[in-house]
Amino acid sequence: MPIILRVLLTLLGGWFFKLPSHLRALLVIVLIVGFSMAVLAVQHIDLEVGGARFERGSDNLLGLRLGLDLAGGVHLVYQAGSEDVKPTADQMKGLLTNIRRRVDSLGASEPNIQQLGEDRVLIQLPGLEDVDRAKRLIGQTAQLRIVERVCQDAACTQFEDRDTGLSGEDIASANAGQGTVGEPILLFELKRGAARAFAELTTRIFNSNPDSPDQLAYVLDEITLVSATVRSPILAGSGQISGGFTPEEVRDLAIQIESGRLPIPISVLTEKVVDASLGSSSLRDSLIAGIVGLALVLFFMVSYYRGSGIVAALALFIYTTLVLAVFKLMPVTLTLAGVAGFVLSMGMAVDANILIFERMKEELRIGRTLNFALRIGFQRAWSSIRDGNISTLIIAFIIYWFGNQFAASTVTSFAVTLIVGVFLSMFTAIFITRNLLQLLAVTAMRRMPGLFTPEPLPKREEGSPRPRPASEQGA
């Protein structure tokens, strides 16, 4: 199969390079558009490339990842360590791993967990509205101890707790379950070494004084969950804990015990909850605003620049498809500010086309052919397009740095969408718009240059000198 594939690619490559340049460019544009539309058409992408798994998409519109202000959810920023104790890089890495394990068990869709600076953690949980539960699950560690309770009387009203050395760190797995009468219980299995110590402990308690038998107690954060006599030695290394839990409490307890202890203490700096209905309303308003804005821009371009405007409208559609596909593949978390950055980049893409068309208009005004006016127009507009976009990119990178340093996810989203949009707007203007116009310049439409300028072309009498472009007058 690899040999056949190589032969096929060689044949296709030879055929491709024999095509005229404008047809090669058209084929590349078709492939780009087809790939972008395929990415957006598939809600969830799940591929295995070179042994690595590539997963993208969500249940949202076009499979895009939406921020909290569009999807609703919980926004938390944690400070790791304290003023006296600064976390190391290894501690921050372990902290992120532990938090991800807890959040994944929480069931939040498309959670966003990232390090901010050297000692802060940003956590965004779309679709979750119980901020107290999220803080309890993420920031608190369930300190479970298994103790031997030595009773001083038959009712065990007076007792002494002895440390057994067994704790939640000795538990290999913990799961929520149900008891014999359907009550929520915690089921656990101990690690191999701890299971042996647990068997010896339960055997010793079982053989204790029959008049005042000792008990096995499970203590969580210094609160006794359950204390009971041992009716038989537990040799299998597994057990269960019941303590009047609700189903949600026993699930959270299992997550906390199984994820282990946080490597460094953390404290909440910022917390925010966005209602899901508010998020869906914001998304609807953003879509309406984007569609109306796009329609107005397309109407202006087509009505003023005529044939060139139609090409620009097609290029803008391709640009929109390409940008959304890149947002999905990166992936970019879209917030309201991110949508604003995307719309701004669309305006810059149109601005680049306007610069090109105005230069073309000057060349057509003095009687240049469409192909020549196109080439000169792009050459003269490129420096303005380049300088304007570079200036915007510099500002966007500065905005991204500030947003990343100060845990402002909306600012970061604006900067990322703007950066992606500016890069792709330059690509669209220089490659797609240019090649589409060049394709028209080799057709019969090259004899109708008046279709590509908003101004009527003056009729030049035979033998009269050609007027200079407006940009050269007064030089």
From TrEMBL:
Residue stretches making up the SecDF P1 head subdomain domain: 161-264
Mode of membrane association: Multi-pass membrane protein
Chief site of localization: membrane
InterPro entries documented for this protein: Acrflvin-R (IPR001036), SecD (IPR005791), SecD/SecF_arch_bac (IPR022813), SecD/SecF_CS (IPR022646), SecD_1st (IPR048631), SecD_SecF_C (IPR048634), SecD_SecF_C_bact (IPR055344), SecDF_P1_head (IPR054384)
Keywords annotated in UniProt: Cell membrane, Membrane, Protein transport, Translocation, Transmembrane, Transmembrane helix, Transport
Residue span, Protein translocase subunit SecDF P1 domain: 95-147
GO cellular component, one term: plasma membrane
Stretches for region Disordered: 452-475
Listed GO MF terms: protein-transporting ATPase activity
Transmembrane segments: 25-45, 287-305, 310-330, 336-357, 390-408, 414-437
Domain Protein export membrane protein SecD/SecF C-terminal: 268-440
Cellular compartment(s): Cell membrane
Name of the protein in question: Putative export membrane protein
Species annotation: uncultured marine microorganism HF4000_APKG7H23
